[in-house]
Write a structure and sequence with these properties.
Blueprint lengths: L2 H13 L7 H9 L6 H10 L9 H12 L5 H4 L1 E2 L6 E2 L4 H11 L3 E5 L6 E6 H8 L26 E2 L2 E3 L5 H11 L3 E5 L5 E6 H9 L14 E3 L4 E5 L4 H8 L14 H9 L8 E3 L4 E8 L4 E8 L10 H18 L1
Parallel strand pairs: 2-3, 6-7
Antiparallel strand pairs: 1-8, 3-4, 4-5, 7-8, 9-10, 10-13, 11-12, 12-13
GO molecular function: flavin adenine dinucleotide binding
Protein name: HlyC/CorC family transporter
Organism: Lichenibacterium minor
Length: about 325
């Protein structure tokens, strides 16, 4: 479950009315709008402390998630483009196997020259079967016909994917995945570019919580406190979570429309910062970019201006990154 989906779930939880007669009930009575809907009745029943003996805590949480699923759209649950792991048509089956091994996924999207040229997906089961001599469509073939050097484009293992808009309701996508028996969808923006990716597991996790299998590795925390009042943060860390960690509200002014700490730093400096750049923020905090690529800030250090750098701070990396940033600015001037 990604950060945007968790934030959407949190907003639903805050919006859930307390048990008993709430404001909306009184408004309905004043304007003669009639009784609450069945959905409202169920939500009130779940909030009623007396129902704890009927439903377990886990059951209540799952039922709330089911009721809130109709409010979620694809954009709320998708894996953003920057985090999509995909393979290209030009890659050999051996290279694709390496990506499967490193990513730990059972399905990978396939693209042409770029991710904006999607061609389908490849499933690890089809991939393994064709390597051992069994065609995914049931046709027998000699095992020597396909090797690890065979290009993915000619391996006949590419399956179709769904293409959906960001505004599509998550529940509608779930039905479409069930009907088509296709468990991966690429999110396409209004210009025809790839905006992100959604799997059926992403939708199910919105109901039951995170699903981890034997091959899922424990993710490092997105925010880590260091000595001296500094913090290490992943660029994908939610701005609300970072604000809570540092004890200062960073979601003020223009930041109200920004979801992640990496997005805030990019907005503050007016361009995509390079490794080593130090960006001045408000509330006496500075942001040092430790890692970045041409699309996003990947990792950064948050430091109060009166705090000393940590003893293990990579001075050589920072200075090299600063020189890199200065050289880039000189070339663009």
């Amino acid at each position: 479950m990604n950060d945007r989906a968790r934030e959407a779930a949190a907003r639903r939880a805050k919006a859930t009315p307390p048990s008993g007669q709430g404001l909306f009930d009184r408004v309905r009575a004043v304007f003669g709008l009639g009784a609450p809907s069945i959905r409202d009745d169920i939500e009130d029943a779940l909030e009623d402390t007396g129902s704890e003996s009927v439903f377990s805590t886990q059951e209540r949480a799952m039922m709330r998630n089911v009721l809130g699923l109709h409010e979620l759209r694809v954009v709320d649950i998708m894996v953003p483009r920057a985090d999509v792991i995909a393979v290209g048509l030009h890659m050999s089956l051996g290279e694709v196997l390496d990506v499967f091994r490193e990513a730990g996924h059972s399905r990978l999207p396939v693209h042409g020259d770029t991710l904006d040229d999607p061609r389908g997906m490849v499933h690890i089961r089809d991939f393994v079967e064709i390597l051992v001599g069994h065609h995914p469509k049931g046709e027998a073939r000699p095992s020597a016909a396909v090797t690890l050097a065979t290009p993915l484009e000619t391996g006949e293992v590419i399956r179709p994917v769904l293409f959906v808009p960001p505004s599509m309701q998550a529940l509608d996508l779930l039905r479409k995945m069930q009907a088509s028996r296709t468990h991966m969808a690429l999110v396409i923006d209004e210009y025809g570019g790839t905006d992100g990716l959604v799997t059926i597991e992403d939708i199910v996790e919105m109901i039951v919580g995170d699903i981890e299998d034997e091959h899922d590795e424990e993710e490092a925390p997105l925010i880590e406190a260091e000595a001296g009042g500094t913090y290490l943060a992943d660029g994908r860390a939610a701005l609300d979570d970072v604000s809570a960690a540092v004890g200062v509200d960073l979601t003020v002014g223009d930041a109200e429309e920004i979801d992640t700490i990496g997005g805030l730093v990019t907005a503050l400096c007016g361009h995509l910062p390079l490794r080593g750049e130090v960006v001045t923020g408000h509330a006496d905090f500075d942001f040092e970019v430790l890692d970045a690529d041409p699309r996003r800030v990947k990792r950064l250090r948050i430091r109060a201006r009166d705090a000393a750098p940590p003893d293990d701070a990579p001075d050589d990396t920072t200075s090299a990154g600063s020189a890199e940033a200065e050289a880039a600015r000189t070339q663009t001037a």
